[in-house]
Amino acid sequence: MMRWSALVLALFVTGCTSVQTIELSEKVTSVEVALPPTKSFGSPRPWPPARSNKNIAADFVSLHFALESGAALPVFTRFETPVTVRLTGSPTASMQQDLTRLLNRLKREAGINIRQIREGQANITIEAVSQEDILRILPNAACFVVPNASSLDEYRRDRRKAKSSWTELRQRERLGIFIPYDVSPQEIRDCLHEELAQALGPLNDLYHLPDSVFNDDNIHTVLTGFDMLILRAAYAPELRTGMSREQVEAVIPGVLSRLNPRGDRLAVQPATETPREWVEAIQKSVGPGPGSPRQMRAARKAARIGQQLGWTDHRRAYPHYLMGRMEQFRDPNEALRQFQIAQQFLKATPGTEVHRAYVTTQTTAFALAQDQGPRALPELNNAIDVMTRAENASILATLLLLKSEALKQAGQVQQARSVRLDSLGWARYGFGSDLVARSLVESAGQRASGSTTDG
């Protein structure tokens, strides 16, 4: 029989895609006061880009001359003056802290002349609004960026005009970013990274990128070394607003050679396009909950397409990871098989450390359920190091919770308690204090009543 009692929360939080706003009771508030302080990450340590400059040059062009929908963009655009950023609406304290940290990274790593202003008209206005306000306009969006708007009201009024169309944009002067304030600190930060990067540079996402936030698989949550190189190249003096695709293609190899000489020494990898049919299948297969039959069929279709195309990279692994997530409570053995298939392809693909750590949260949970905690510890420690460097607090909290159980099974009870406490500090940032507090209250209530989920 498999024992799940200590793993229910870990598996639950791993499957979360967003944090819902929770109305706190007096009991939950008292628990929150007793929680450890919210954790925060130290100095950024992004992995440097690990692909050939020839591959990166092609990616640069694809990222800047199309939208996620596939619509072509006629000219290259960027800000041609020092960039000002203003934070408005109802921002949280963590939102300001993470914005300051991000702006410092953009100045240091991407060489962009960017600063925050407190009043007046900014080039980029970031408005903190409610999640409900965003969903009223874009039901499937966590956050978004638009041209020629400085408030949600302005965009709502003008959204059907040419000024709000990216395909009509010929120069960047004023953009608006809309981010919810009533979600977890990590979700706010992730939105800041992706939307501010798109406000400054690429508007497209490419599934074949293993090391970028410009990818709809959401594996990376903060700007990577590759992303900073793309942004630094976008603001190189060799480029300017209004250049055609052909003009950019002519100069970008020289830009990358100057900025990333290591990339000239790396072997070119065969480039394969991601067909729209695969993208649509993936989009149909993702979502909260255990997964419907329709979602499972879509994931299987994506896996078949990857096999037919001869892929061996992270795109081949991704639908198997999704199928494992959908099967984990219905058929644990089949779920484990799917996770192992995904891991097999990822281990053969350079630059997929973060992807592999995601799968580790699942495979080690199965090992712990079979009382194999000591055996799982090395893999957990490696995944914890990866997710710390990737700055993903929600997965880090999950991994630490799993490590706590592994240590408990190894007889290291005191260390297990310390690691579990550490996980709560990261969970407060990754999932939000309200959700962590409520989970603890419910867990305490179950223990008090003598209930258990042991199988």
Walk me through what this model shows.
The protein is mainly alpha-helical and 455 residues long. It folds into two domains: 214 residues, Tetratricopeptide repeat domain (Serine Threonine Protein Phosphatase 5, Tetratricopeptide repeat, Alpha Horseshoe), CATH 1.25.40; 210 residues, Collagenase (Catalytic Domain) (3-Layer(aba) Sandwich). It has 18 helices and five strands. Helix 4 links the parallel strand 1 and strand 2. The protein is globular.
Order of helices and strands: HHHEHEEHEHEHHHHHHHHHHHH
- Supply the CATH superfamily name of the largest domain: Tetratricopeptide repeat domain
Q: Span from first to last CA?
A: 6 Å
Main CATH class of the largest domain: Mainly Alpha
- Work out the helicity level: 40-55%
CATH topology of the largest domain: Serine Threonine Protein Phosphatase 5, Tetratricopeptide repeat
Please count the beta strands (DSSP E, at least 2 residues each): 5
For this structure, the quaternary state is single chain
Strand content: 5-15%
CATH architect. name of the largest domain = Alpha Horseshoe
Provide the structure class: mainly alpha
The gross shape turns out to be: globular
Reading side by side through the largest sheet, how are the strands ordered? 2-1-3-5-4
**Average pLDDT value?**
88
Number of continuous helical runs:
18
Count of all domains: 2
> Are there runs of 5+ residues with pLDDT below 50, and where?
1-28, 444-455
